[in-house]
Automatic annotation (TrEMBL):
Gene3D superfamilies: Glycogen Phosphorylase B. This is Glycosyltransferase WbuB. The keyword Membrane applies. Keywords: Membrane, Transferase, Transmembrane, Transmembrane helix. Signal peptide: none annotated. The chain crosses the membrane at residues 83-103. It comes from Flavivirga eckloniae. One of its GO terms (molecular function) is hexosyltransferase activity. It comes from the Bacteria. InterPro entries: Glyco_trans_4-like_N, Glycosyltransferase_grp1. Residues 17-192 form the Glycosyltransferase subfamily 4-like N-terminal domain. It holds the Pfam family Glyco_trans_4_4.
Amino acid sequence: MRDILIITNYFPPETGAASNRIFHLADGLQKHNFKVSILTPLPNYPTGKIFKTYKGNFKHSSTENNINVHRLWIYASNSKNKLLRLIAMLSYSFSLFWFFMWSKIPKTVIVQSPPLLVAFTSVFFLRSKKRKLILNVSDLWPIAGLELGAFKKNFSYKLLEKIERFNYKHANSVLGQSNEILSHVTSLFPDKDTFLYRNYPDFVTPKISERTISKGKLRIVYAGLLGIAQGIYKLCNELDYTNVQFHIYGNGAERSKIETLISNNSELDIIYHGEVSRDKLHEALIGYDLAIIPLLNRIYGSVPSKIFEYARLGLPMVYFGGGEGEELIEQYNLGWITEASNYSKLNEVISKINPNELNIEFKEKIKASAIKHFDFQTQLQSFIHEI
């Protein structure tokens, strides 16, 4: 049995794509005879507060699903203040350094990036000719931060670029969730070993249901983070509700704005359901006509994991984000695409969708395509062969 350590900022009971991705990777590895350990902060996402069960702990270790989970101290914060967020990342980096000093580290380590500083701490202290470091890159920072408007090209940005390059240089191999990520890495380090590791889900697919008519409208759903990058608040304001009812699941920075908008504008056919468990969400999602996947701006390297999850549920999509995600929707006939940030075009595309097309046969084709092309176990087997 081989030991492997995964260092990540997110892990259950935290919710979201990053947490799910790392859990499925860890669970898959332990089922293939790996002894898996996780290093992660005390749970705090997305509230920015340590979860009640873990309050008062400096460190918490447990065995969950045959995985050894070590939860380390962090100064938790989801503040928009950049200094407080920096302090939060540095606090976890400090905890990692302390753990490295007093613990035996396996010869194979997977490091999640971003956050860049956490990845840098791990790579800096663990790089060794006797150890294999695998950098799992889910988003391209600081490029993504620049495209989102979070950064400017100044001294701080150049420093983050140097940290990014250091991490790539000293990792033995790089996992990337998109071909764009891998292209970026090899443009900097042409000889670097890379592996395309997408965020494929691993769950038993529920039975697809007949579409439910609601006021004669298309029932469109968004489920996920209500953050700045997704732009759900703006989407609520821009959608044409003539033939659309919009359902929202999730939590995040824009939640209060969305709730206020709904409260003050009863003419907008929007229903906010709050945050629900993943299993309950899947049961709800299969009853909708369409899912929408928006990005406020096209982000280089980003491929929303919702594409793979919705496809496995047989849920048609309207993709509103550009880039590689757009290519996947077209390649596997998963729904419709439209130009990011062009709301008039989005409304035009939705208005031309024939509800009769959104039948069980169409949804079953999407589901079958996902099972064939987005299979978690097939990908995992290929990755294990590369370790």
